[in-house]
Task: structure prediction
Amino acid sequence: MGRCEPARLRVPCGVHIRQPRPGVAVLVLALCGSVACGAPSDDGTPTTAAAVAAAPWADVVARARGTTVIWRMWRGDPAINRYVDGWVAPRMRSLYGVEVRAVEGQSAELVNALVTEREAGGARAGTTSLMWINGETFAQMRSERLLSGPWADRLPNAATIDRQSPIISRDFEQPTDGFESPWGMVQFALIYDPARTPAPPHSIPALAAWIRAHPGRFTHDQQFTGMTFLKTLMYGLTGGVERFQGGFTDHRYRTGREHLFAWLASVRPSFWRQGTTYPPDVAAMHRLFANREIDFTMSNNQNEVVTKVRQGILPAGSRAVLLDEGTIANAHYVGIPFNAPNPAGAMVLANFLLSPEAQVEKQRGDVWGDGTVLDPALLPAPWPARFAAAVADAAALPHDELARKARPEVHPDYHARLLDDWRHSIRQNAP
Amino acid sequence: MRPRSPRWFLPLLAVWIAAPILMLGLRAVARGWPFPGIVPVGGVDAGAWLGFADVRLLSALVMSMGLALITGAASCGLGFGIAGAMVDTSRRSRTLAMALALFSVVAPPIALAVGLQVAMVALRLNGTVTGVWLAHLVPATGYLTLFAAGVFGAFDFSLHDEARTLGATRWQVFTRVTLPLLGPRLAEGVLLGGLVSWGQVALTALVGGGVVRTLPVELLAFVRAGDDQLGAAAALVLTLPPGLALGLLHAATRRSGAAL
Amino acid sequence: MRRALPAMLLITPVAIGAAYSAAAAVGLAGPGARGFTLRPTLAVLSAPATWRSVAWTVAVGSVATAIAVALACCAARWLLRRASWQRLAVLPMAVPHVAAALAALLLVSQSGLLSRLVYAAGLTQEPAGFPALVYDAAGVGLVFAFVWKEFPYLVLTAIAVLATGTNELEEVARTLGATPRQAFWRVTWPSLWRGMAPAVLATFAYLVGQYEMPALLAPSDPLALSLLTYERSVDPVLARRAEAHVLGLLALVLTAAVVLAHARWSYGGEEGRS
Result:
């Protein structure tokens, strides 16, 4: 393996001082005392998710009863929080006797936290039992062996997952191998205000023409949403996503980057602030858009236009538009970390999240607007009709248009390379 | 004598200090407020405030307050203890101690946060209130040591010497002379240490492992999501308790005759 | 020396953090660690972006600290005996950093309240007509927010120093015939600076490391050091996350140099005085 032994670092808790002052004594006592009372009551390492999953499902459910699941996720959207805290948690409590505590924890940061936990505390130091992850984070967690599994295919509700969809069964072209369970599906869309932009562009050339005709009114953010926009352009400008499928190759990447950067060079002088600076994140984009500093914002979720208008963050009447060249769709998942204290509870929760009730509620425009990962055709009546009616909003895009224009994610290295090159060649080089 | 200030000074100070807080206050009751509106459109909206009736946000608020109180008290004791131990030592030791305290305060967050996370995981205190409390204690004690050193620097130690020559032990001098004289300053110290804890986001998130929920962490999430109304409301809820504490403390010290 | 030991406890976590960071920086710990390597260190130290980031961060932090100190020193003299005004002046201490940054965004951005007032007066036709004070390369909005947030801490320190009798000394100097300017620069300023130096350094170093406020207000280029460090710490290429630790250690060295310079200076200064 060539890897070093996990460093075991200890805090000296008995610093030798003669004539200790009261303050020091308190600190030393506090440190030592808390070591004693902080020792885990259960001395064995936690049972892995794979071992739990091997048992019959009824045993898993029985084992989960009366436990608490700490679920780390992005907590930035009040609508998502309301769905998780106000709809999922009470049902988990009444149906399975499982207490769900959803807490803040962005997946890119979780990788670092889990590695530190393993290095300093071995397999017993974990607090998290379930994590919201996808794409690059999944790849990183697999390569660092931070995920427990396989378990996801053993969930009873996994039978109705839409296995035909290339977007769900493969996460950024990686097989999920039962190490994560699908939870939702979203698709990138541009958002505009018809009052300001009655005829929005529907294709990449039309977008370029629009940007040049309206200097200072378009930009993208520096993070995941902005990069998804750039990847969408890269596919469209290089002849389609098919050119990038089947793993990462340097040559294909360079060709794509050349097309993308040439396109950017031609429109960048007409960007917001002449492309010398970019909004930090998509929240800043929404703020600029609502305040008429720019005329387009964007989202990785095609239904965000519905939910954010309801929250008063985006102007009333805002609409979403997909580019004819296709926009990126991707799925998000839940995973169980290697040091999860409660894998059984995590699996019962993951299974409940895949139930038609939980999926249709989540898809409602006035709840979250997150697309389902189930195939409604595999479900008995009246579920197919309920899924069809879930997003009833004038701003919602029709399902067939979404499906027609959905493009899958490609190997995560494309994302990593593009992010790095964009930062070095474009962000750092103001025209 | 009160130094004369220019006539513009006090009104300008008032505007400078109050404008951002008033701005947050307005934003907290306006659902949407797009450019170029000078007054919020759609009238007053209490929706964001009703959100604080939520048990989770309330419990996060209570957790923040509890942590601030115990961190403030403990860091004040430790800070004054450390600075007090330095009072009659050599200049070299004093300089060293102050440099160490300053260093613990100015150390880059990533080094401090990662160090505390590693330490707390090794102690099996990650994801516990005790762990978060100890983590908050580190920067708070650093600040309090500097603060206490400043207090002792301006302290009249002739009373100590008198008490000592009259045969009092060190401990007696501390409890009978030092503590009463320091009273108001200790209260300020508790508040200052509490404020350091009150503002922590990174340490809480990293050491608390998401299990220990405080209101600043929730506030950051709202602002990151672009929900300015909820963010402004949370900001005001976070401003109120320390604001009141500052005011009360000030009133108390004023009555006791010692200016803050 | 033995009495300095309690203070040692204070830097134990920093020392552990530095040790872990050092191990992670050379590929011996952390995500993506694959054995000893100097690549992250060399990559960080040889990247012009690193030094642009350091220079920009130090410049913005220095300007904000200098403005805040100057304002605090002036205000402290005028607030010395006005307890109720002091209570108002320290209010920003109670406001969380994220909230102060949000308030700055709502006030001075191109669609903020100031811009709206200018627009209402007919001086601009669109948000872009107002000068760019946030996400701007000069960091004006960030400095504004920094100064607002740090002013109370510095003004309190300045008042505490003046209250120890410095102000009376200035009055004595005045009665002895010094001009106001002479009295301030020869009498008040030296003792004010001596008393405030640790607080000033702490403020400066704190601003250099601050994350939440640049995250909401700073430009994408040059990137504030804290933002660059965070960006590296969540880089999609795990091996590159070691660079965040190199940047953290770089910041540690910078702040250590500041602290050491101050310790040396104040030690020598104290000896000079006695």
Observations:
- Confidence is low (pLDDT under 50) at residues 270-274 of chain C.
- Residues 23-273 of chain C form a domain with the MetI-like fold fold (CATH 1.10.3720.10).
- The radius of gyration of chain C is 22 Å.
